[in-house]
Design goal:
The chain has 13 helices and 9 strands. The protein is α/β, with parallel strands linked by helices. The longest helix is centred in the N-terminal third of the chain and has 20 residues. It is globular.
Length: 369
């Protein structure tokens, strides 16, 4: 069965110095280079382009991820200046463009691009030589230095933006700093410029109050690329039923994340990226399976009253790789285990296909230009 992954921060490979055009076993066993490198262990990598094709992942919402340094931010070590934030974001966009130029990927800029690309995958007997579809998104808004600059990013192919990531960003509060922080600075202006362009607002990784304020200002399409349910797992990183319902009423698709931090129930200790405890010790893969992921998918369907708003948003490798994913997920190809779980719970084929890929396909066909 085909898959569309609603969240793949693939350009983290630029920082981690990974060659994702290689088979996954070669990525995982790559020798460490002199001087070392930042990022999580290569041996835990869940996805590369050949592995994505092996797993039937026809397309993914890939991300530009840059968190500018701010004192006491949950994610330290970001760029020190506006200019560096912009340059790093542009570098990640360039990474996606060169993959398209080399035929490894196809950037899906328009509705017709989506239709043509998905038909190519549906008709194919083998996926080995097909380009992987990329929807271009931004997780956190720091690389957009002023609201009207978003037009430049749009012309480069960017279609989806979340205002926050971790802590306060340029235009709104992300998670990791409480749920009360609202829009920041010229956040309302950015939303208005996005509206004028027909861009999509991602309400993932954004504080509750920022989401409420944004929904009151922004009239365009919204989605939640990788967002689980607070009713099942407590914590500000998950989304309340109130905001899930408001998002669904606006036509959003909600991607279920494969991050153990967002799936482990009854854990008393929080983790924000800078505490002394290792995340893998607090949120252990052995405590979480894809059954837990499906619980979140079904909760969204219950809130919606149908199967048209739930899908996958794996946060593929954004959770640190397999060590931060459910016990039965070693690579992105293991997402193919979800249809069997849904089938065992009584789902019919059409509803399973909605969750695996058709919901994301319909969404982007409707809301891309």
């Amino acid at each position: 069965m085909l898959i569309i992954d609603g969240d793949y921060p693939m350009a983290l490979a630029v920082r981690m110095n990974r060659d994702l055009t290689l088979p996954l076993d070669e990525v995982r066993s790559a020798p460490e280079l002199p001087g070392g490198r930042s990022g999580w262990s290569d041996s835990e990598t869940m996805a590369s382009l050949p592995e994505i094709r092996r797993g039937g992942v026809a397309a993914a919402l890939v991300k530009v991820v840059v968190d500018q340094h701010r004192d006491n931010a949950p994610m330290p070590g970001g760029p020190r200046s506006d200019e560096l934030s912009y340059a790093l974001g542009q570098g990640q966009m360039a990474y996606y463009r060169i993959l398209e130029t080399k035929g490894e990927a196809r950037i899906l800029r328009t509705s017709s691009d989506v239709k043509e690309h998905m038909q190519q995958w549906e008709d194919a007997d083998s996926y080995d030589d097909l380009p992987v579809g990329f929807f271009l998104g931004m997780e956190g808004s720091d690389p957009i230095l002023w609201p009207k600059q978003v037009h430049e990013w749009y012309d480069d192919g960017l279609r989806v933006i979340s205002l926050g990531h971790y802590g306060p960003a340029r235009y709104g509060h992300g998670t990791g700093a409480g749920i009360e922080g609202g829009l920041i600075g010229r956040g309302a202006e950015l939303l208005q410029e996005m509206d004028a362009l027909g861009m999509i607002l991602d309400v993932t990784h954004t504080s509750d109050e920022s989401v409420r304020q944004a929904l009151d200002i922004f009239n365009g399409p919204i989605l939640a690329s990788h967002q689980n349910c607070r009713a099942i797992v407590a914590g500000e990183r998950q989304m309340s039923d109130e905001l899930l319902k408001r998002s669904i009423e606006r036509g959003a698709v909600i991607g279920a994340s494969m991050d153990t931090w967002m799936l482990t129930r009854n854990v008393e200790k929080d983790w924000s990226g800078k505490r002394g405890d290792r995340r893998e010790d607090l949120f252990r893969p052995k405590d979480v399976t894809l059954e837990d992921v499906v619980d979140h998918i079904e909760h969204v369907c219950e809130l919606a009253g149908d199967t048209l708003h739930a899908s996958i948003g794996g946060d593929t490798d954004g959770q640190g790789g397999a060590i931060g994913a459910p016990y039965d997920v070693d690579t992105v190809a293991d997402y193919q285990k979800i249809p069997a779980i849904l089938g065992e719970r009584g789902w019919d084929t059409a509803d399973v296909e909605n969750v695996m890929w058709r919901n994301w396909q319909r969404y982007f066909e409707e809301f891309l230009p």
